Fold these 3 entries.
Entry 1:
Amino acid sequence: MPHIEEKVESLEAILGQFIVNTTRFENWTRENIKEMNKKWGELASKMGTLVEDIVAPNIGGIVKRYFGCADFDFFAIRVKKRNTKDRNKTREFDVIAVCDDKVIVNETKSTPRITYIDDFIAVLKEFHDYFPEYDGKKVIPVFASLYLQDDVVNYLSKNGIYAMAMKDDTMDLLNFEGIKE
């Protein structure tokens, strides 16, 4: 029987080592998944700012061509602003451009969704709570992405929001004719 006892002890030792290694592997896997999720989050965030970085320089040409604004009194990207009526609320605006009697408010998304447009519509209703200094100026809302599907463009048009996306070799408004002023 000593031979069987040695084999059992050997198997117990191997099983013990297997359990330790499995636990280590599970911990290593968990840590790697956490790290990978963090990197995916960083990449998604960078994609959002990358699209914003492509859209922002195109705003000037679009506004000049379609709305007759040659020079801006104010132009800023990623403007963080506190709500003047509810100081607990702050909001980031992707682009705010002001010229003469117009304020261009841009929202840019790397992956456009109807819910994002609905959120933008809600923000537009509160725009002057963030920027009371532009009261009396015409607010021109522009929703931008690299590509906008027809149903998204139609939804934007229906809600009086300009749709800006790539067209040929530059960005353009896809629904200028479809917005009723």
Entry 2:
Amino acid sequence: MDRFRNVLKAHSLKATPQRLAVHEAMLRLGHASADMVTDEIRKSCDTKVTVASVYNILTNMAMLGIYHHRLSSNNKMYFDVNTFKHFHIYDCENHEFKDIVDNELVELIENYFSKRRFRGYSIEDIDIQLIGKPTRRKKLAVQK
């Protein structure tokens, strides 16, 4: 939390109880919508928040690069506390994001695209998302 407080201070933002509660919830959840974060805050602490205030905090944090954001197929904005280089699998049945941390794959893809040119564009970042459904085995495990 001290690191988060320092990041807020560097952006001239106060470490309000709401911002701290949102960040603590995001650390627990990893990938979450404003609704999910609001529910987590309400369950775990006595800080008063609304979904709108949580959404505004998450959006501001994403604009500052503290979080990343992703749009799901159900048109809901999800935020990601992990800003290091990684990819995602999006579970289109349950609307969940899972991290794929594979430094070898990141390096391979970055090297590939560093040798490619796209007329009229300079590539700033690479964001890869795989879309999938739970396998039968996972579905059975969840049902038990």
Entry 3:
Amino acid sequence: MKPVFLLFALLWALVIPASAQTTINAGRAIEIRIQGVPTEEMTRINNTYTVSEQGYIRMPFIGNVKASGLSAHALASSIEARYRADKIYTNPTIQVIKSSDETLEEYIVTVGGQVRRPGPVKYIRGLTIYNAVQAGGGATEFGSMYRVKLIRNGRLRELDLTRTQNKGILVEPNDTIEVPQKNLWGR
């Protein structure tokens, strides 16, 4: 009887972890830790990353890495392989920890310029640039919705938010949005 019970317990221990391993979804926050690299390099990589709506995270030195649809273990293996293939680290060990929804909601988008309430706006999944401006109180009477600036990862993009197709552009955590002052032509 004892061997049957041990066999059953062993099978149960193997089935539970396999079924509990879930995939990473877009819009979620994940925590990444690295070992096997110099200490000063660990501080660059050990961080919380947000999976973009396209399903990627942006890692130091290697850029975008596909995360959506992968398990935490598969993502860790993928990141390790990229660091090795690009000859950045010879023996990295990556640990991926999925964070809860509450962690993600702590991210912000900064809205400034000619808006009624400039400052941080809480990021939530699906937040559009137009909604972020409205969360900042909307443009003042001096603000131009024709030349709204979106700054993401150091890149500037100017958008006309009077056009319907631009209102639905999704923002990402840590984006900066600036509503400029109207020019002489009221734009």
